[in-house]
TrEMBL record:
Name of this protein: Fe/B12 periplasmic-binding domain-containing protein
Keywords from the UniProt entry: Signal, Transport
Annotated Gene3D superfamilies: Nitrogenase molybdenum iron protein domain
Family, similarity comment: Belongs to the bacterial solute-binding protein 8 family.
Cellular component GO terms, alphabetical: outer membrane-bounded periplasmic space
Location of the protein in the cell: Cell envelope
Signal peptide: 1-32
GO biological process: iron coordination entity transport
Domain spans labelled Fe/B12 periplasmic-binding: 88-342
The organism's place on the tree of life at top rank: Bacteria
Length: 342
């Protein structure tokens, strides 16, 4: 019988079928903390390895049959054996939080995103009674241990230096990075939880939603994505969470954003590069720490055809750029249908 690891790798390279093809492995998004820039040509943390994070993630996981335990999970820091299906899960990254909730698993503990006072509003109700164990950059190890987890989930990008300490508390499984490979990460998380079948079901439902939304949109309007962040303004490319959703919908992008990278950074005087049939923009963090007010009040912005046509709209940063999982993706699809649907 074909192993789940082999099956998942095959799915992520080809398709899950529900009337149309569910293409996996285009994925992506990231938060401010994983979007630091080393050079103008290297926006995404991870450098030359960033664009291969999807295929690298697809090589991870276990060879166990669906739901079978014990299983040994190959992950970014080595191998971890899980004797039984996890019941008490602590999650240390925002993408994995969306993912476990999408699988019907409520974690016993979560870490909040760096520089964020709370979890995304779209997950608030599901996380109301879940204990916080610090932030992704400042973990509370005593609080984690007190929860007596039988699995800790996170990413190497966030908690690599804490891996040894976390592993002493409970079996710890780390993805490579959040963001770009969000579909592969979802399958990987499901593998660790023994919920492989549920993951395929969820991704099929996502694709069905994509197909339904696409049917409501006339033509292929060109979509521009702008994000105001402290110290930088970005136009998001195809290797981003929202970028892959637009790709799944078959919507076109401005040439400068139709790139296999996370984003390009622009200065306020180059905001004309943001033009498209529609402009969707958001702000990460405090608006006063960004160029948002400066750009949105600028004549260059107001001269953009999309702005003059009333087609420049602010969207929710938490779901559009920080969603990182199926729940966030479906929130975005709902927004797009409300805006572009006929």
């Amino acid at each position: 019988m074909q192993s789940i690891r082999t099956t998942f790798r095959s799915l992520s390279r080809s398709a899950v079928i529900v009337g149309t093809v569910l293409a996996l492995g285009i994925a992506g998004c990231s938060t401010a903390s994983d979007e630091a820039t080393s050079t103008s040509d290297d926006v995404a943390v991870g450098g030359r390895l960033f664009s291969t994070a999807d295929s690298a993630t697809a090589a991870l996981g276990s060879d166990a049959e669906p739901g079978q335990f014990p299983r040994t999970v190959v992950h970014s820091r080595g191998e971890t054996t899980l004797e039984q299906q996890p019941q008490r899960v602590v999650v240390l990254d925002s993408g994995e939080i969306d993912q476990v909730l999408s699988l019907g698993v409520t974690p016993v503990g979560i870490a909040s995103p760096k520089d964020a006072s709370s979890q995304p509003a779209y997950l608030k109700d599901q996380l109301a009674d879940v204990q916080t164990v610090g932030t992704t950059s400042e973990l509370n190890f005593e609080a984690i241990a007190a929860l007596k987890p039988d699995l800790i989930l996170g990413s190497k990008l966030r908690v690599d230096e804490s891996y040894d300490q976390l592993s002493q508390i409970a079996p710890t499984v780390l993805s490579i990075r959040p963001g770009f490979p969000w579909k592969e990460n979802f399958l990987f998380t499901a593998d660790a939880l023994g919920l492989e079948g549920k993951a395929v079901e969820v991704l099929n439902e996502y694709q069905t939603h994509v197909d339904a939304v696409r049917e409501t949109i006339d033509g292929s309007p060109e979509i521009s994505l702008v994000r105001f962040m402290p110290g930088r303004t970005r136009l998001y490319g195809n290797l981003s969470f929202i970028g892959v959703i637009l790709k799944d919908l078959g919507l076109s992008r401005p040439e400068i954003q139709n790139i296999d990278d996370l984003a390009v950074e622009i200065s306020p005087e180059n905001i004309a590069d943001a033009n498209g049939d529609w402009i969707f923009y958001s702000t990460y963090g405090k608006p006063e720490a960004t160029e948002q007010d400066n750009i949105l009040s600028n004549e260059l912005w107001h001269n953009l055809p999309a702005v003059q046509d009333g087609k420049a709209l602010e969207v929710n940063d938490e779901s559009w750029f920080m969603g990182l999982g199926p729940l966030g993706a479906n929130e975005v699809l709902n927004d797009i249908e409300n805006i572009l649907g006929s």
